[in-house]
Structures are given as C-alpha cells and as structure tokens.
Amino acid sequence: MVGAGQLARMTHQAAIGLGQSLRVLAAAADDGAALVAADVMVGDYRSLADLRRFAAACDVVTFDHEHVPLEHIRALADDGVSVAPGPTAILYAQDKLAMRGRLSELGVPCPGWRELGRLDELSGPIVIKAARGGYDGKGVWFVSDRRQIDALAATGTPLYAEEQVAIARELAAVVARSPFGQGAAWPVVQTVQRDGICVEVIAPAPDLPPDRAEQVQHLALRLASELGVVGVLAVELFETMDGRILVNELAMRPHNSAHWTIEGARTSQFEQHLRAVLDYPLGATTATAPTVVMANILAGPDDVVPKSLDERVHHCMARWPDVKIHLYGKGFRPGRKVGHVTALGHDLASVRQRARQAARLLSHGDRTLGGPA
Amino acid sequence: MVGAGQLARMTHQAAIGLGQSLRVLAAAADDGAALVAADVMVGDYRSLADLRRFAAACDVVTFDHEHVPLEHIRALADDGVSVAPGPTAILYAQDKLAMRGRLSELGVPCPGWRELGRLDELSGPIVIKAARGGYDGKGVWFVSDRRQIDALAATGTPLYAEEQVAIARELAAVVARSPFGQGAAWPVVQTVQRDGICVEVIAPAPDLPPDRAEQVQHLALRLASELGVVGVLAVELFETMDGRILVNELAMRPHNSAHWTIEGARTSQFEQHLRAVLDYPLGATTATAPTVVMANILAGPDDVVPKSLDERVHHCMARWPDVKIHLYGKGFRPGRKVGHVTALGHDLASVRQRARQAARLLSHGDRTLGGPA
User: Fold this and answer.
1) Which residues contact A155 (CB under 8 A, 6 or more apart)?
2) pLDDT of A58
3) How many CB pairs (< 8 A) connect A and B?
4) Which residues pair with A190 in a beta bridge?
C-alpha cells in the first residue's frame, strides 16, 4: 500500500488475519502504519524510482491516498505491476473535473457544474472547487465574484465550478469490486461534517427508505463497474432539501465513512479492500448491530488538553466499556484526525451519544465526566 | 510479549487499535508475529540476558507461552520490570503440581491427584501427567502399571498422578483481571478436543444452565484474584458424567478457547489482555451473536493437500462469505494449528456446520464442495 497513514494502518490489521503482511511505502518512519507494520519502505510517492523499488516486492500495489501522480501509476501498470485500482479508474478519484465529466456521460445525478470558461451557464450561487488535491474541506471556495475567481485561477490550480445545492444531509454509499467483477455494498450511511471534516458516521442512514437506499447502493455498484474500480469505492452523496440524491465525490480506497464496518459489519472495508485487490471473493457486508455510530477523534486545541492521552483513554474505557477505540499513533495537532471510536446498539440516540461523548473525551480531555451530553 | 506465535500475532492486531505496537521476542524471524510486527527482537526466551535486553524497551512484559523459566521471570521482576502476570501467579500456569496443590488449598473442585509417592491413595484408573511443559495432549500418559510409571519417572520429568474422570464434555471459563483488581468474564464455552488438541469451541456452551455458568464464571474470577493473575486467565474444565465441574488446567495468557471473542464478543481476549497488563479498565465481554463457533485449522496430512492454501482460501471465501478466516502465517506441517475460522449466527447446528466445513476445507483442500457435511 502506497501511503502509511491510518488507512494503511487499519489495512495492516486486516491483512494479518488473512495471513498476509502489508508492505507500506511511508513518507516517514513514524507514519501511523510504519509504526506497526513489519515491511516498511520509507520513500517518496511522487518518485517513480521509489514507486518501482517499492512495487518490486509487492504482489499487488494499492493506495491509501489519491496523491500518487497518475503518470507514475500508468508507468507501473506498463511495467506489468498489478495495480488496483488501475490508472483508468483512479483518474476519477484524482481529478474531480474528469469525474464530473464521466458521471455526466453516465447520466449520474450530480450538482450542475461547468469549467470556469462556462460559468455563465450555471444558475444560482456557485462554489469553486479544485479539480485535484482537495480533501477535508480543502480545495473548496464559496466565492462568486469574478475577480476572486480569477485570483484563485491565477494560482495555477485547475478549478471548476458547481452550483451550490441546498443540502439536507450527506450520505455515503461504500462498495467494493473485485477484478472478477463481483460487487458488494455496505448499508448506506449518513455522514456528519463540521467545517468540511467528517466528524460522525451513522449506519445505516436514519430514515432513508429501503428502496431509496437500494437505489443508491445500485448506483455505487454501477459506478464501480463502469469505472472499472478494483477495491473499495466510496461514493459521497448530497441529499438535497428537495429530495434528490446527487454524487459529490468518489474515493477509491478505504474511506472514513466506512470505519464503522470494523465492528459494525461482518466484513470490514479494510479486509474487503484486500480481498478485492488480491482477487479473493468478497465477504459478507451485513451489519452486526441495528445501529452503529463512528465518531472521529479530532485533536482539540492545545490549550484545552488538560490530561495526557493515556489518562483520557483510561477515562474513556472506564466510562464506556463497550465503545471501541481506534488510535492511529499520530501526534495531536489541533484539528487532526488522530483516531475514531465506534459504538453499537439498538437505540440510535443512546448509541450516538456514547460515540460522541467518547470521541469528545479523547479529543479534549473533557472535564464534564458524568455531566450532560 | 515474549513469544511470537499466533497469540502474539493476534495481540499485535489488537495493540494497533489501542495506538500501541507490540514488541515481540521471537525465537525466529519467521515466527507468526515476527512476520507482521514492527518491533521484533530475535532471541532466546531461556536466556536471562536476552530477556533483559528485550524488557529494556518494554513498558510491560507479558507472555504468549508458559515456557519462560520462572527464575528468569523472578529476576526481571526483581530488576523492577513490570511483568504481567507476575512470577507468583505464573507459577500456577507453569507447574501443574503446584497448581493442584494451591487449588486444593482453595477448596476448588479438581480430579483426585497425588504425587507419585502416594499413588495408592488414589482410587480407580489413573492418568500420569508431567508437571511442566505439557500442552495439546503432550505430557499425559494413560498408564497404571507401576513399572511403566517408574520408567516414565526415570526420564527425570517431574510427574504426578490424577484419577481418570468420566468426562461428559470439556468447558472453559476465560476471564481477565487488571492489576487494580477489576475482573471481567466472557460467557463459558464448550471446547471440543480431538487427540488431545482443541478443534472447536462453542460459545456459549450449549445447555449449560445459567446459574451453573455463573458459578463457573465466579470460580474463574475468584481464581484470578486468589492467584493474583494480571491479564487473561483461561480455566479449562471437565464436566463429568455425574454432573460435577472440575478444574483441569490453567493458562495465563490469551487462549485458544477464546479466539471466538475476536468477532464474537464486544472486547476480544487479545484487547482485554492488553488492557489488563497496561492497567487500563477492562472492556465489555458481551457476546455479539447468540451463537459463535470457532474451529481450528489443523494442517492435514501432506498427501491429501491437493490445492494451494491460496486456492483453499479462495474456495472458502466463495462458499462462506460470512465466515471469518484467521491465518497465522505458519508453514503447514501435518497436525499443526495454522489458523482458525469463526462463524456466528442464531442456529447452533448451522453455525457449527459452517465453521467445521470451512476449517476442514482450509486444512485439507476438501474436494467435497457442495457435498454433505
């Protein structure tokens, strides 16, 4: 796996069960996965030489992020390396403009969008997006003034424009596809963002009618097939105030919106991604509990972290013996995703409260133990 | 963790979630855990110098087997190393004669036993057991002839004798205890042995009345407390034909009889062992499904392994998408435990059949796919 962040770290956990050991290409020796994996190469994912050296010891090469230059992925594939997902698919996870174009060809519902030269064909308020490199709310600008847009464009970042949609909530449909073409979909989830960063995922998405959920799963499976994805495909969606479901973004790797599957589904997204890229049959995606909530642990501001992480873990475990903690081995920098927690059960309100409170405690060293939510 | 077999391998998986990385003392670089852990020292667990060098980089030292010389464990503790379980507890996992003596003092029901010099005080058929080093049916002799016993004793192995009990079935009560004294018990399970080797574990033990199960859990928790165990304690039990429950053996580490907890309980024995030895609060031990069956994958005879492991995994996944596979990264030698599978569900008969068939397929390359059980 190219990249050694938390996605690679959790993929290594799954690999161990399958009798495998994940080889990771880490940017630094203290990357989350590099701290726990046996087979680590420290190198630069932007260097074709490093990628080739890395790939030489791999059965299959896969990715924990979208930032490997596409021409390098093509070069590896041309070398005969088994790359999953392959370059023709991964283009649509790397380049949002290409993705929008392809999705429109396929008739998939998306927000209205145009290249910057045809802005006037859009109606209502717009949002400017970077075609590449955006994540966690980065690469998105709510500007409509032509001069501001020109200033953004002058930086050389490839941009495009989308109509702003009145969003009721965000959903995600996560599926996997094997080289053989087998597909498997987890229940559709609701994702909750704060400042453009995912803070919470609720599985299944509350009050989503079953036929609607099934349509969305089919859409995601169809996209995986049409784009030739191998591995996990996460389809981020907007549910609009007027009841439409539109595709926002695609990711072709394990994704934050499916961390809940580690405990909440019979097969986790990490195991499933490995099954897919290793060309094994896919695992069952059934949920293990009626309601599962995942909450991200976002490191709090430095000045309100009164307890050590170890103390906070201690308090969290003492208070919620059934909440599962996942820490990524990262240093705490304010706002950084340093882990997540998962709670499971029958009653959404109580499951959600446990997950939120546990994540907040681990983030902030919350002093309100025993207090109200 | 001293030892780098499958128990350390699965403990490392759990450690990753807790933001930790397991340091292992491996006998060889290709031991199961050494293949997947980042922090591996190859050394000899019988060498105090190696143990000291290993311990110097650990917060806490724990074990994946009982074979570390007790005097070395004492020496580490005397050095000020945090050792869990400590030497005063681990004695009773290493030395069955000491264990029998202590359990009798505590009034715990055991098979009748005597040292070899007082054999005549036992009634009925007896079994000779090695006080140390026995496992998986090794170190047990069904001999009653005095000359045969003398011949065994002449080898220098410390021995003792037990009355043979008419066993209806075997059970196991697995608990954990923290240094603070917190205890947690998983549901009591039935273990199924073949040729002295555990082949299957059923959780919870079928038809065990709830009050009886609770008594057994309390016994195991009491033993953990009386013996000062820190970490997981597995109490292997005989249920006799006349309805008594007797203690057979103790293990103070993650144990085969609780592998089912990885998917089958809210907190796995591997996470719980880490929580205990790291002095964290213990996790919830509630089951995640009404019935869970774990079946060991025992490598079949060489001459009936017609498919590669990879092919067998492929077939197993295709046939049982919901069965969870755990492979230990070991070479297949006939009879060796090379992995396990876990199936979960509502109906014991069907869950058990899935687990058995999957394990058999992975063991033998069974050609009867689609055929009867």
Assistant:
1) none
2) 97
3) 111
4) A171, A202
Average pLDDT, rounded, for chain A: 93
pLDDT at position A373, please? 34
As a residue count, chain B comes to 373
pLDDT tens for A332-359 read: 888 899 999 999 999 999 999 999 999 9
Chain A residues near residue B284 by CB distance under 8 angstroms:
321-322
A240 beta partners: A167
- Helices and strands: H and E segment counts in chain B: 11, 15
DSSP category for residue A118: G
Cα(A40)–Cα(A34) distance, rounded to whole angstroms?
6
| B85 cis-preceded (ω within 30 degrees of 0) | yes
Element (H, E) at A12: helix A6-17
Residue A162 sits at φ, ψ, to 5 deg, of -130, 150
Contact A321 B281 (CB under 8 A): yes
Sites in chain B below the pLDDT cut of 50 = 366-373
pLDDT in tens, A257-284: 999 999 999 999 999 999 999 999 999 9
Question: What is the structure's pLDDT at A371?
Answer: 38
Check whether A218 has a pLDDT greater than 90: yes
Task: Judge whether A109 is closer than 8 Å to chain B, CB to CB.
Answer: no
Q: Does any CB of chain A come closer than 8 Å to the CB of residue B9?
A: yes
For chain B, report the end-to-end CA distance as a whole number of angstroms: 39
pLDDT at B89: 98
Q: What would the two tokens of residue A86 be?
A: 């392959």
CA distance B260 to B272: 13
If pLDDT is split at 50, 70 and 90, which confidence band does A364 have?
confident
How far is B246 from B170, CA to CA, in rounded Å?
10
What confidence tier does A369 reach under pLDDT thresholds 50, 70, 90? very low
| Two tokens, residue B114 | 């005597």
Residue ranges of A 222-281 with Cβ closer than 8 A to chain B: 266-267, 275, 280-281
Interface contact B305, partner A, CB < 8 A = no
Burial of B328 (0-12, 13-18, 19+ CB in 10 A): buried
Give, to the nearest 10 degrees, the angle between helix A70-79 and helix A48-55: 40
pLDDT of residue A135: 64
Flag whether residue B309 sits within 8 Å of chain A, measured between CB atoms. Answer: yes
